[in-house]
Amino acid sequence: MPAQLPDRWDREVDVVVLGSGAAGLPAAILAHDSGAKVLLLEKAPQLGGTTGISGGMPWVPLNKHMAEVEVTDSREEALTYIRRLTMGKHPDDALLDVYVDTAAEMIDYLETHTPMAMYAPTFFADYYGDMPGGKPRGRSIEGLPFDASQLGEWAEKLRRSPIFPPMTMEEGGLDPAGLDFNMIAERYEKDVRTMGGALVASLFKGLLDRGVETLLETAGRELVLNDAGEVIGIRAEREGRDFYAGARRGVVIATGGFEWNQELVKAFLKGEVTHPLTPPYNEGDGLIMAMEAGASLGNMSEAWWYPAMRDPTMEYDGKPLNHLGGGRMMAGSIIVNKHGKRFVNEGVTYMDLPKSFYVFDQVAQEFPNLPPVWMIFDRTVKDKAVIITMMPGEDAPDWVDQAPTLRELAKKIGVDADGLEATVERFNRFAAEGVDPDFHRGTFHFEGFTQGGADPSINLGPIEQPPYYALPIYYGTLGTNGGPRINEHAQVKNHHGGIIPGLYCAGNAAAGVFGPAYPGGGATIGPAMTFGYLAGKAVAQETPRALATRSGG
């Protein structure tokens, strides 16, 4: 239930923003710039949330940086592309128009009024760039390197990615073979951030310049409503006690998803998330608060799916570190289920591949592709690819299963040996011919989206050089994207109709505007920033409400 009125408020402001990621930071900036006194609360001991460890690329149609890579865009093309991918499964059609009409405006504003500076990588295409309205580059943009020392003592509170090095996409930050280790060492020494770290640092510098108060390790627990049902504040937990922050104009929930809350995962998601790829603070706090206040919900069965891998020797924030993996698109690798059978084009997008995990076999009455499933590869892949933390040319660590024959490998990992041998024999036969009639490997755009499209000579090849290796792949996610339904101002809708006065939501805490779709790199961050921007503008315009207390003050 929403919290009771407090005896006193620990802070009294106009707007409280919960979360310091891609949604919360723009919300706080715009609320301040629109005349509101703002307080930002962050549950974790570090700034940035999921955005801080991400690639940091917002996907933004019609942005001005597209001209830098000689690509034009139009409203009609962007909407055609998005609607083709959502297939009518998005929560609110009008919000697609709002997004396309506002995202570029948001980028322009933040580049003009904060240290955030973006550019368009020359090679980063839409994930389905060969579909109507898709673009070969330009919609996924990223921040220039940012000197985090500008944040002063806050720099050490800035979340750092455990996976991505301090190089931009253009510099080769996603290409292990092209890493510049001298540059990496220099940037670590000087605390120069890139990708999600640069985005968070530059926006947070904007907050510091504005004098907006930020409190870390302060977890929002319950909304405070007045007798009229209007949100007037938040009960949080700080230093082991209740902390009440009054918000005369409203509260913006930007707390991320609920992927680390197994009770909520089991209640809502159609796939079991066993290996989240996010910081372990995304426990659905904002979702719970919004539900208690009567929020209408949408997109609740969806997440930003990712086929996760793990180096069991590594941790992050005290939890096992789950990885993005690698190698699954390369010639010489396949993915099989417990029967030793392929079940998917291994090169489809990370959002789409896990959707095949919950296919149901009505005859056998089972989910045959339930993780762990296995990436099977040979020595040629091992010797030239970085896979999780394995470097080319190095011996495979003890936690990687390997064997001189496929049959022995199958026995080690508990996969049907006859099935695996038959699958590899069939795959190799077709790979030698340069075709994959079963799952069309080497034909899907994402398999080579940074190089103009798929190429069977790169993506399709036999598995024939022992030893053979196997790595488990699990249900992973970059975050959930179901939550309160919002309107064009990011106001939370009431399930009884209308809105909940004084309550706003953006980012992974809200119902994802794209529904089950993921148009391109940064399809999480672009909407988060855009609706955070809209929330900040709108909440600051609310008529101030009295901050009542239990004593009647």
Structural description of this entry:
By secondary structure, this protein is an alpha+beta fold. The chain folds into two domains: 350 residues, FAD/NAD(P)-binding domain; 169 residues, Succinate dehydrogenase/fumarate reductase flavoprotein, catalytic domain (Flavocytochrome C3, Chain A, domain 1, Alpha-Beta Complex), CATH 3.90.700.10. 24% of the residues lie in helices and 20% in strands. The strands form five sheets. Strands 1, 2, 7, 8, 9, 10, 20 and 21 form an eight-stranded mixed β-sheet that branches. Helix 1 runs parallel beside helix 5, helix 1 runs parallel beside helix 12 and helix 9 crosses helix 10.
Question: What descriptive keywords fit this protein?
Answer:
24% helix, alpha+beta, FAD/NAD(P)-binding domain, Flavocytochrome C3, Chain A, domain 1, 553 residues, 2 domains, seven-stranded mixed beta sheet, single chain, eight-stranded mixed beta sheet
Q: Specify the oligomeric state.
A: single chain
CATH homologous superfamily caption of the largest domain: FAD/NAD(P)-binding domain
Per CATH, the class of the largest domain reads Alpha Beta
Quick one: overall form?
globular
What is the name of the CATH architecture of the largest domain? 3-Layer(bba) Sandwich
Topology:
Layout: E1 11-18, H1 24-33, E2 38-41, H2 75-86, H3 93-113, E3 118-119, E4 142-143, E5 146-147, H4 181-190, E6 192-193, H5 195-210, E7 213-215, E8 218-225, E9 231-238, E10 241-253, H6 262-268, E11 275-276, H7 285-292, E12 297-298, E13 303-316, E14 319-323, E15 333-336, E16 373-377, H8 379-384, E17 401-403, H9 406-413, H10 417-433, H11 456-459, E18 468-480, E19 483-484, E20 491-493, E21 499-505, H12 525-539
Parallel strand pairs: 1-2, 1-10, 2-7, 10-21, 11-18
Antiparallel strand pairs: 3-4, 5-6, 8-9, 9-10, 12-19, 13-14, 13-18, 15-16, 16-18, 17-18, 20-21
Helix pairs in contact: 1-5, 1-12, 2-3, 3-12, 9-10
